Structure formats: C-alpha cells, structure tokens
Amino acid sequence: MFDLPDDPVSLRSFLERSPDFVALSDFTGKILYINPAGSELIGLEDVADIGQLSALELLTSDGLDLTDDIAAGLVSEGKWEGYCELRHHVTGTGMPVVVSAYVISRADGGPDVVVSTIRHRHRVEQPISSTRPTCT
After folding, report:
1. Whole-prediction pTM
2. Strands across the sheet containing 21-26
3. CA distance 67 to 72
C-alpha cells in the first residue's frame, strides 16, 4: 500500500492543492504551516508573515470565546470540531467557518502538532445542486 507520510513530495502537493484551509500548529499556538487556500482565505500572502502568527491571531473575538473549549477537546479527546470565526487580516471581516482540529502525536518523540482543516461555512451549508455530479 502507498504510504503517503513517507512521501513528503506527494503529501506537500496534496496540502497545497487542497481547496480547504489546512494548518499545522504546535501546542503553544504557533503556526507552523498554512496551505495556499488558507492563506488566501485569511488574506495573507507573505509566508514570512504566516510564520509570525499565533493561532489566536487568526480568530475574531467570537472565535476567541471558544479557545477554552477547543483546548479542552484537544487535550482530553485529541480533537475538536465545531463552528468558529476567523478574521480576514486585510479587511478585518469575520468569516464563519467549520473547524476540524486533531492532535497528531509524533512517533519519534517530537512535540505533538495540531492539524486543522477549516472550511468557510457557506461552502459546507450549501445544498448540493442537482446539476452537480454526486457519489452513489
């Protein structure tokens, strides 16, 4: 079977092509990686700027209200899923999103990371059009 984690080129290509926001952070909240779709969603194009951000800086005040619940879920269950609100860094506009965040434990004993996939809520809640192909 093909082992994607052992093929960093394919894994990076997958992350960079994903239409959803994908981010990696450490448990201090330091952003380690944001894919191009995520950078576009929050209005940041400079990779150097992304490396200076903490996860808290991505959130609106409504999103910050959820941080205790998010942290508790990540620590106790290794995951958190729910609605949140991101802040666009150019316009300051809040964006309703759906977040799935998971703790990834490293087998080599290195620090755990948090992987988050984020989708703008309007994309999640749109009904599937009858003209779009569906899985059967």
Report:
1. 0.80
2. 31-34, 21-26, 113-120, 94-104, 79-87
3. 8
